[in-house]
Structure formats: C-alpha cells, structure tokens
Amino acid sequence: MQKKGKWRLTVRRDFAAAHQLRHYEGKCERMHGHNFNVEAQVEGDTLTPDTELLIDFKVLKTMLGEILGGLDHCHLNELPQFAEHNPSSENLARYIYHELAARLADTGVSVHSVTVSEKPAQSATYFEE
C-alpha cells in the first residue's frame, strides 16, 4: 500500500513588543521589549489543481502578518488576549497558532506548529496532537 504524501510550508515574520512576566520574581517581571521572531508551519495533502500549490506563500505571510500586526509595538500585557495569561513566548505561540488556524479554516491546510523566539538562541514551539 502506497503512503499518501503531505507538504509542509514554513513562513517567518517578526514584530516588536513590550511585555512583563507576572509572578516571575526576577528582572523579566519589569516591563521590557523584544524583537520577536515567529515561524509558522502549515501542512496539507492536496495541491491546488491550477497552480499546484498547497497555499500561496504570499497568502500565508499576509495571514500571519495580520495576526502579528495586532501585537506589533504594543504592551502585550494590556491586550485582552493576555489579561489572564502571561504574554510569554509559550503563550504567544499558542495564541498565534489558534489565530492562524481560524484563518485557515476551510482551506484544506492546517497549522502544524508556531515557534516564537525572543532571542536567536531560544524559542518556544506550540503544536497540537
């Protein structure tokens, strides 16, 4: 029996924002900023019949850009989506994942994972099994 293949696409964008980690008990509890890097991976098993693309990179980058536009140059703690949860890299990745999944509904493409990094040497990845 032949296995069915899948495609996985990756796009990267960034945004700048301030945050403070509640209950951290260290200097990150004070407000500070980052240039966050975001990597989103999507996957699917069917290409479009005309252009043979899973989804146009431009469309995917636009979707991700719309999500990040709501976070860019903000104090993340003041946004409603982080009223109850710390705006940590982990929670940012989960938030972006769910926002992107909602935009991809009914496209035949699903979110595989979202990775957020505050610095090049560390990142947090969110995915669902």
TrEMBL record:
Top-level enzyme category: lyase
NCBIfam families in UniProt: queuosine_QueD
The EC number(s) this enzyme carries: 4.-.-.-
Protein name: 6-carboxy-5,6,7,8-tetrahydropterin synthase
Pathway connected to this protein: Purine metabolism; 7-cyano-7-deazaguanine biosynthesis
Entry's cofactor comment: Binds 1 zinc ion per subunit.
UniProt cross-references to Pfam families, sorted A to Z: PTPS
Residues that bind Zn(2+): 19, 32, 34
InterPro entries reported in the protein's UniProt record: 6-PTP_synth/QueD (IPR007115), 6-PTP_synth/QueD_sf (IPR038418)
Record-annotated active site: 28, 73, 118
Molecular function, one GO term: metal ion binding
Reactions this protein catalyses: 7,8-dihydroneopterin 3'-triphosphate + H2O = 6-carboxy-5,6,7,8-tetrahydropterin + triphosphate + acetaldehyde + 2 H(+)
UniProtKB keywords: Lyase, Metal-binding, Queuosine biosynthesis, Zinc
Similarity comment: Belongs to the PTPS family. QueD subfamily.
Source species taxonomy: Bacteria, Pseudomonadati, Thermodesulfobacteriota, Desulfovibrionia, Desulfovibrionales
Membrane-traversing stretches: none
GO biological process: tRNA queuosine(34) biosynthetic process
Cofactor: Zn(2+)
